[in-house]
Amino acid sequence: MHEWALAxxxxxxxxxxVEGKGIEKIIEVKIKVGEMQQVENxxxxxxxEQLKPVExxxxxxxxxxxxxxxxxxxxxxxxxxxRDELGEDMLEAIHFLxxxxxxYVKCPECGSPDFExxxxxxxxxxxxxxxxxxx
Length: 135
Ligand SMILES: [Zn+2]
What we know:
- There is one protein chain.
- This protein is of the alpha+beta class.
- It folds into 2 domains: 2-28 and 35-67 and 123-130, hypothetical protein PF0899 fold; 69-119, no CATH class.
- The protein has 3 helices and 6 strands.
- The strands form 2 sheets. The protein has a 3-stranded mixed β-sheet, covered by helices on one side. It has a 3-stranded antiparallel β-sheet with strand order 4-3-5, with no helix packed on it.
- Helix 1 crosses helix 2 (41-51).
- It starts with a helix and ends with a strand.
- The structure holds zinc ion.
- Zinc ion binds next to loops.
- Zinc ion (ZN) binds at residues 72, 74-75, 77, 107, 109-110, 112.
């Protein structure tokens, strides 16, 4: 039910973001979901469709998966995490305890296991397209 709680939070966030902005109709909302969140996009989309209030009745939801980006603390090299290289068990472990990943993932440039996750975590609203009220 993780996706439903998430959809509820996203809907609330959207409404809060457009509040007081004079937007009459929200046409399109782009949502980025970090790969590490392990969100089932189909369930998430269904949840959004079911939970959306009247303000979002005609809104098109675009859900995009954000790749996990890592940055080496030693040489500064940035790369994208290849989730296919790790098994499901490992992904689960990393999801709950990101520190675990340091034992399995190394910088492709210098081989250091000392890196930070700089992108692809969490869920966020990338953009909202709306029609402004006239006058
Ligand atoms: Zn490095």
